[in-house]
Structures are given as C-alpha cells and as structure tokens.
Amino acid sequence: MLTDLTSTLGLSVPIVQGGMAWVSGSRLASAVSQAGGLGVLGAATMDPRELRRHIHAVRQRTERPFAVNLPLILLRADGADRVEELAHVILAERPPVVITGAGSPAKWTSTFKEAGLLVGHVVPSARLAQKSHAAGVDFVVAESNEAGGHVRPHGLATLSLVPQVVDAVPIPVVAAGGITDGRGVAAALALGASAVQLGTRFVATQECEAHAAFKQSLVAAGSEDAVLYGPEGKISRGLATPAVQHMVELAREGASAEDLRAARGIDRARLGCVEGSIEEGILPSGSGVGLVRELPTVAALMDELMATARGQVEAISERLGARAPIA
Ligand SMILES: Cc1cc2nc3c(=O)[nH]c(=O)nc-3n(C[C@H](O)[C@H](O)[C@H](O)COP(=O)(O)O)c2cc1C
User: Which terminus in the chain has less CB density within 10 A, N or C?
Assistant: First the structure.
C-alpha cells in the first residue's frame, strides 16, 4: 500500500507515530520505523543533550527513516526560547524528517530544507495548510480537535478537516486525530490522506516510554472519557483524571483564565505521563480511546492496523459493487 508520501519518506506502510511530549523517545520511535512506519521523537520535553541522545539511539536501533517533532513555541521556566537550541541539534544531527507545529512554519522551514531535511507541519485548518505550503513544507499533518494533547477547542473533526486540507494544497496530507484502528486508517485514506498519524494508540503499546498506569488508563477508558479542558489558548484533550475534572468544573463555574492556568499548573503532564500519577496528573488522549483494549507490541499493532484497513477497503468495494435487488 504505497502513496506519494510513503515513497518520498521511504516508508513501507502509510503510518506515522505522532510526536508526543514525555512519551515518544527512541524506544517507541525506532520500533515504529523498524516496522515500516515513521517513528517520531517528541522533542518538546527534551533538552538538547537528551534530544541528541535519542537521535543517536534511534540510529543504533534502525536504519530506517525517522523524524523529530519540534513545536515552534517552547519556553523554559525562566521564559527563554527553547526552540533555537533544539533546532541546532536537529541541524547538526540531520534526522531525515522534521515535523514542526504550534507556530508559524515561515521561520524555520527554509533553514531545515537547506540542510536537506524533509519538513512537515501540523495544521488545524485548510487556511494554515496553505500558509505552510507557501512556506515550503513538503507535507502537512491535518490534525483535528479529536486528537490527544493541545487542540483547537472549536476546531474541525477529522472527517470534515482532511478532505478540505487535501483540496487546499497540492502536497501530501497526513490525517491525525481520533484514528485508532484499521477502520480509521481506511477512512482517512478514503478522504484523500496520504498517510495517518496516530498518537494515543501508540501510547498503549509495549515499547512506548509512558508509565504503565497511563497505558492501563487508556485500556480502561470508554468512549466518553477523553474530554477538553484547560485555559483559553491552551485547550487540550485528555482523560478525565481528577485534576482534569477539577479544571472542567472550574470552567463550568465560569473561572477566569488565570484560575484555570493555576489549576493546570506546570508539571501535571510529566506527573501523569512519566510518574503515572492518576490523581495529580494529566493524561493526554484522543477521542478514539474507547477503541484501545490491549497493549500490543508496535509491530503487532501495525500489522493489525494494515490488515484491518485492507479488509475494510475490500468490504467497502464489494458493498459498493453490489446492486440492490429490484423490488
Ligand atoms: C501523550 C501525547 C502527547 C502529545 N504531545 C505532542 C507534542 O509534543 N507535539 C505535537 O505536535 N503533538 C503532540 N501530540 C499529538 C500527537 O502528535 C498526534 O497528532 C495526536 O495524538 C493524534 O491524535 P490521537 O491521539 O487521537 O491519535 C501528543 C499527543 C499525545 C496523546
């Protein structure tokens, strides 16, 4: 199953593992790349030395292509910009692909491209996809508000976002947000996507660096358990842990953005994702979490995703080919 993007990136399956703060290090990323997809290191929560170490570790484990995810708005606790120091590591180490997001693609795209990297940018709308194309990116990741992590509160859903982005730009589009099994993969490709990006589903795998309690929470969660929370401008989707429920209640009572920011704190994602604190922590999760029922290896998951997607395509074409009996 090859698409324009899989040929450009050198993948054997159209599956990208979303870059994820705290939980997508070299173990997860190399497993995904080794299985034929695009493994992505989540640089947002790494310091330059850690990022360099993870890039080296991926290269030791696989010769296949991988990427670094670099959100373009990253501040240190003292307010200093962290993007530049991480960008310098990327320029020195030259992973084959960099996927930027959360900021303007205008500033870094040409620098990365001049260094020979393929560049993708995460967008929530057709308008921002066009801006990214104008900035020179090679592909866009159309991420809906069904995704885990930071989202646009009034953003589009995957079903309406992806075809609008596909129509808006002449470059490959990766669909992201709520895609959790092979049916979602087939649906996204049917919408015109060249590949899919999954985040939540990859957290619930053997190789993911996330704390076991986070993974078990994903397996236990049902269809209504991934909710939107947080202060204006920093809305996220995650499991309704006690800390998140508190933020949802505060918002319902009309709390100020300042109060919501205080309730969110600065360390809750690490507490949830790394320490496994369900009580105090935040556990980012997409809206498809109710479909997560076990913790497979990455290779088994990717085989299953592709087998189900192929089965769906065959079943659909049979259904479309069948004529309704004439009464
Ligand atoms: C735990 C977690 C952390 C994430 N951190 C980041 C991040 O640092 N940068 C980013 O661009 N996206 C981040 N995302 C979004 C993913 O890259 C991906 O686009 C998203 O998870 C897709 O939606 P899904 O979770 O429904 O599969 C994160 C998602 C999760 C679940």
Answer: C
- Give the CATH number, domain containing residue 64: 3.20.20.70
Lining ligand 1 with CB less than 6 A are 18-21, 23, 42, 44, 69, 71, 101, 122, 143, 146-149, 176-179, 197-201, 203, 273, 284-286, 288
DSSP, residue by residue, 280-302: T---B--TTGGG------HHHHH
For atom 7 of ligand 1, which residue has the closest CA?
20
Q: How far is C-alpha 54 from the geometric centre of its chain's CA atoms?
A: 18
Backbone angles phi, psi at 273, to 5 degrees: -75, -40
CA 159 to chain centroid, in Å, comes to: 16
Q: How many domains does the chain have?
A: 2
172/234 same-domain check: no
pLDDT at 326: 64
Claim: this prediction has a pTM higher than 0.70: yes
Task: List the Cα angle 115/120/124 in 5-degree steps.
Answer: 150
pLDDT tens column, 79-132: 788 999 999 999 999 999 999 999 999 999 999 999 999 999 999 999 999 999
Q: For a pocket test of ligand 1, which of 15, 16, 20 has the largest count of ligand atoms closer than 8 A to its C-beta? A: 20
Instruction: Write down the pLDDT at residue 87.
Output: 96
